[in-house]
Specification:
Number of helices: 4
Helix content: 55-70%
Largest sheet: 2 strands, antiparallel
Pfam families: DUF4383 (PF14325)
Protein name: DUF4383 domain-containing protein
Number of domains: 1
Keywords: Membrane, Transmembrane, Transmembrane helix
Radius of gyration: 17 Å
Number of strands: 2
Length: 137
Amino acid sequence: MSQSPNRLLGVIFGTIFLIIGLFGFFLATPFPFATAEGAVFIGLFAANAALSGIHVVIGAILVLCGLTGTLSAKIAGVLIGVGLFAFGIFGFVAAHTSANIFALNTPDSLLHLLVGLLLAAAGFASDKVILRKPVAA
């Protein structure tokens, strides 16, 4: 795992997402499941149960793929990275509308953009996977 940036990032960010998601469930208990209302985490990030559920699923996938192997960590990093980047853009667009069912605010959206960009960039840039050995001449 120490030789693969994708595996390392998957386990680190996956663990962080799992912790934030599980903690978010406890904070968001008094709020409805999927509305623009939510609890405030660390005085900065908004969260409701729907967003916390997404964080738990993303965290579990990243950790499992990071522990499984380089190729799975790379694929998960790219797919989740692109998804988080798109989710960050959605957060900016939907922040003050009725479409904001995840209680997203500007810090949430910025963080999703940055983490998504980092995961996708690491997935595209590192861990070349050789599918077959070169034949000796």
